[in-house]
Amino acid sequence: MGTEFCSTAAGSGGAGANAARLRSQHSSLALYLRGVNGCPPRHRSARNEAPSDSQSSARLDRVGRFWQLALATRRTTDDMVASMRELMLGNQAVARGAYEAGVRVATAYPGTPSTEITEYLSEYSEIDAEWSVNEKVALEIGIGASIAGARTLVSMKHVGLNVAMDPLLSIAYPGVNAGLVVVVADDPGQHSSQNEQDSRTFVPAGKLPMLEPSDSQECKDFIVQAFDLSERFDTVVLVRLTTRVAHSMSLVGVDSRSDVPLREHDMRHGKYINAPAFSKKRRVVAEARLRELEGYAETTPLNRVEMRDPKLGIITSGVAYQYVREVAPTASVFKIGLIYPLARERLLEFSRQCSKLQVVEELEPIFEQRIRSFGIATSGKDRVPIIGELSPEIVRAALTDDPAPAPSAVPDLPVRPPMLCAGCHHRGPFSVLRKLKLHVTGDIGCYTLAAFPPLSAMETSICMGASIGMAFGYEKARGREFAKKTVAVIGDSTFWHSGITALVDVVYNRGITTVIILDNRTTAMTGHQHNPSTGSTLLGATVSAIDFASLARSLGIQAVREVDAYDLEALEKVIREEVAREAPSVIITKRPCLLADGIKRPGPPLAVDEDLCKACRLCVRLGCPALSQVDLTVSIDPSVCAGCGLCASTCPFDAIVRVQSE
Amino acid sequence: MNAVPISSESIPTSVVIAAVGGQGALLASRVLARYAILRGCEVKVSEIHGMSQRGGSVVTHVRFGHSVHSPVVELGTADAVVAFELLEAARYVPYLRSDGLLISSTQRIAPLPVLTGAVAYPEDLERTLAARPVRCLFVDAQRRAEALGQIRTANTLLLGVLASQLTKDIEPWRAAVRTSVPREHQRVNLAALDVGWALFADEFAEPSHGGKGIHT
Prior knowledge:
The complex is a heterodimer.
Chain A: H1 15-37, H2 53-72, H3 77-82, E1 85-89, H4 90-100, E2 105-108, H5 115-121, E3 128-131, H6 135-147, E4 152-157, H7 158-163, H8 165-170, E5 180-186, H9 203-206, E6 210-211, H10 216-233, E7 237-242, H11 243-246, E8 248-253, H12 276-297, E9 304-306, E10 309-317, H13 318-327, E11 331-336, E12 338-340, H14 344-353, E13 356-360, H15 366-373, H16 392-399, H17 427-436, E14 439-441, H18 466-478, H19 480-483, E15 486-491, H20 492-508, E16 514-519, H21 548-554, E17 559-564, H22 568-580, E18 585-590, E19 606-608, E20 627-630, E21 633-636, H23 646-650, E22 656-658
Parallel strand pairs in A: 2-3, 2-4, 4-5, 5-7, 6-7, 10-11, 10-13, 14-15, 15-16, 16-18, 17-18
Antiparallel strand pairs in A: 1-8, 6-12, 9-11, 19-22, 20-21
Helix pairs in contact in A: 1-2, 4-5, 4-10, 13-16, 17-22, 18-20
Chain B: E1 13-20, H1 25-38, E2 42-47, E3 57-65, E4 78-83, H2 86-92, E5 96-105, H3 112-115, H4 125-130, E6 135-139, H5 141-147, H6 154-166, H7 171-180, H8 183-200, E7 214-215
Parallel strand pairs in B: 1-4, 4-5, 5-6, 6-7
Antiparallel strand pairs in B: 1-3, 2-3
Helix pairs in contact in B: 1-7, 5-6, 6-8, 7-8
């Protein structure tokens, strides 16, 4: 057997025997688990209700899975109790850590790679979790909840931290009451982000401690530790993840939830008043706190020295630590868990013990520069790339002087970029914008894909909410006639996040910007989260959906139009009229995202009549995955076609027809 | 002797699963991880989410053994690459060690530049891949899954092929499927696992690194 080194498992006893044992012991474990875990995760939509039968059986299913595992690994119940481990995504382990740390409030705005933290948090009935409209609001709710006595977790992606920077640095002097932890997930390699900024850069500005885990177990443990640190040192604590930690799975030991009572509401005079009279005093406190944290860094087990061969000492953190252990198993390692402030004395001692030092860190040379400032000579970014994500092969190459050649790739393979789905709501508006040759300031969401061929109908996509202000900037720079050739395009969730303030600015400062809000009734890009216009919350409560049209009218915008996103004719007419208008206007294009739950295909699939097709390729230029050019005609894949009919509307020869009527 | 040159005790087994968004790579990697747990192994899985639902290239890494550090497989070290699409097999084959195993569906899904006619889908990918020193198993997984009545189980079927090359015992794999797949889909997924398992099970004991691809 190839994997004999692993203990033998479910196989030889047979699944049937296991199942029988499973049945006999099922109920007792269910009771046990409830005792250990507190209330097991419950169904998302039933927050304030007693568990129904179906929920109970869902729980029993989960318990059953545990049991199967326990039996499969042939451990006794007691062994299993002592070492019950679950395969968890890093983000899931963060949520578990928050649960075990007694967190009561959790807020976030979705953003890859941090989104799942809040989705998992929403499964714990003890935690009030929400999708906030943006990261600034999320953190402000967190600060309020902390002062009012509840342990609170706020999570976001790295660029979300920019949005939250005002409350983050402003709470640095006042500090906290109940533990307040901010999880920030960086995206080295830009898998799904506009930049690869390194969040470690920002913490010195607030003198705030930051932790970095290297696998799922540490994700859970560090979160628990972060809450203790937050209360012990009276400060917000940041926990930094990267994509490879957030989106990797490994086994995690599960503990019970700590009983952390609501703290007394902190009403100390002036502590949370950031007026100079108070904050000048808190400034001194913040400085003293940093000194204390520097002392703590010298003793905390968050930092770990692994002495092996003293010829090479490697200083590293996060997933880079795992790569180092993989490719240089005999090297000595200083694993940094508390990445700010650094443990100066322990690093000096490590440097004396090793003949050569190498810092292996992803992105910026933060450790390297700081360590050099301690008077320690070390190699760093001279060997490790500053751009992009690290990998085992990159770390191996950095640690050897003559790296082996990389395995040869198969040459000339076509790329496979992501594309708008078949039937996507965004395709209609952007195909019209391309036809009208307008200047389009775009925004962040699935629709950013419209910037790429074949649609190529977007000039800019800078940051969340930027489209509207930028279109107004075009007008300021080049005048009203230019504004009549410009539109801002923004998604529903992005509009709530930070487009709304720019629209107010346009109205206030007498702009004539035309704004298209792409309302597909979900935050699609990050996996279909609710937002203020979907009519539902994270926890499944039905709420009144905020209406874009009423909102725009309430701001004093007269021209507010709602259009079917599949109706190319109407779209073109409305867009032409509104860009020409000497006043601000809002166009709302409507159709639900087809990937969202419960949404049906808009119609039966279409097909090409080859006798009529002139191979003009107008339809292919929609960039629909169902359409492909085959020799002198076009083919539609019926298994992919969503039946939106956009290609038929585009065809000048009526060569695209419905296969069958509904 | 193994058909797949499984790593030694100290080195974990590494599998790369390559697919197109929507083909079920995440589920397959989780079934594989569940199998490893059932065998009492440490396991790490690395996934890239984000654009996976929009038809982009998706890759997951699964590593299991006594102890596992990196969740990411090092280039040129994977014991097996399982590809749900031929172009993705070609894209990720550099992850394989020189005597590793490539299992690929023969399904072709045209990426955007091919759909728009900008470039052609590469010809003869199977021959290109078979010319490498790795062992290749090509499977018409889509057709076989369709025959089972659920085309979406091509992922489990290909996992069944991998299973047949890793071990002689299918039971822990069946348990892994049962604990990873929702109850209503278990039967068809177990059937797909069995079909995949049966295709090359005879070759388990005969490692062949001869470079010629085997088709079913």
